Amino acid sequence: MNRVLTVLVNNRMGVLNRITGLFLKRGFNIQSITVGPTETDGVSRMTIVIGADDERIVEQVIKQLHKQIDVLKVMDITEQQIVARELLLIKVNSSVQNRAELMALVEPFRASIIDVGRESVTVQATGRPDKIDALIALLRPYGVRELARTGVTAFPRDSDTVNEVIRLNKGSMLPI
Q: Is-contact 85 150, C-beta < 8 A?
C-alpha cells in the first residue's frame, strides 16, 4: 500500500539529505518526493510517497521524523480526503499527419501541447497520478522520446470544502 506523508521542515541545507537517509535506514523505497516552499517564509513542504505494508514500521518512521531537528510537522494523509496532483512532460513522436489525432487524444485529459518540433510534440498534463498513468499509456503507441514526472504533491482537503461539494452534488463527489 502506498503511504502519503507530508512533512513541514525548516528550509535549511542538509534537511532533505537527513530525511531521505532516515528512509534508507528503515529500508523504505521512496516512490516520489516533492519539496517546495510554503506560504511561510523559510518553511518547505515535502510530500513523500512510500510503499509500506507494515503499519508499525510506518509509525516508527513518523516518530523518527518528529525527532529530526528541522522537522516542524509530520502528517500521514493517506486515509484523509486530499488534493493530490502531479505534473507530466512527455515528448512523443509526431508527424504532421497525426498531430490533429494527438491533439484530440490529449484534450479530454485537459493536457496541452506546449512544444512542436519537426518529428515530435511535447505534452504537458497535471492531475492525479492515475490520470497521468492513463495518458502515458495512451501516448506510448506513438513512441515516447522523453518523459518527466514531478511526483505527487498533496495536502488535506478542508473538511468544509468536501462537505460543500457533497451538498452541491447531492451525495456524489465530482473528481477534482
A: no
Predicted TM-score (pTM) of this structure:
0.79
Contacts of 67 (CB under 8 A, 6+ apart): none
- Domains of the chain from N-terminus onward: 2-76 (3.30.70.260), 83-154 (3.30.70.1150)
Give Cα separations from 76 to 48, 82, 159 (angstroms): 10, 11, 16
Helices first, then strands: H and E counts in the chain: 5, 9
Q: Distance (Å, rounded) from C-alpha 74 to C-alpha 65?
A: 7
Residue 88 CA, distance from chain mean position: 10
CA dist 74 and 9 (Å) reads 9
For residues 47 and 5, the answer to whether their CB atoms sit within 8 Å is: yes
Is residue 71 classed as helix, strand or coil in its secondary structure?
A: strand
- Beta-bridge partner residues of 36: 45
State CA 51 to chain mean position distance.
14
User: Hey, is 9 helix, strand or coil?
Assistant: strand
Report the chain (176 residues): mean pLDDT per 10 consecutive residues.
Answer: 92 94 86 94 95 81 92 94 95 94 95 96 96 97 97 85 50 47
Rounded CA gap, 157 and 44, in Å? Answer: 19
